[in-house]
User: Fold this.
Amino acid sequence: MSLLTGCWDRTETNDIAFVLTSAIDLEDDGRYRISYMLPLPGSMG
Assistant:
């Protein structure tokens, strides 16, 4: 009987998001704007 190994619980890079930067800005009307910068894995060299 041979043992098969692998990454059965793996998550593909295209299925997750990596936050590079984030920012919280206070708008003129008192509301907050939250911004995130995420890379696109398919376009990374």
User: Anything to note?
Assistant: The mean pLDDT is 80.
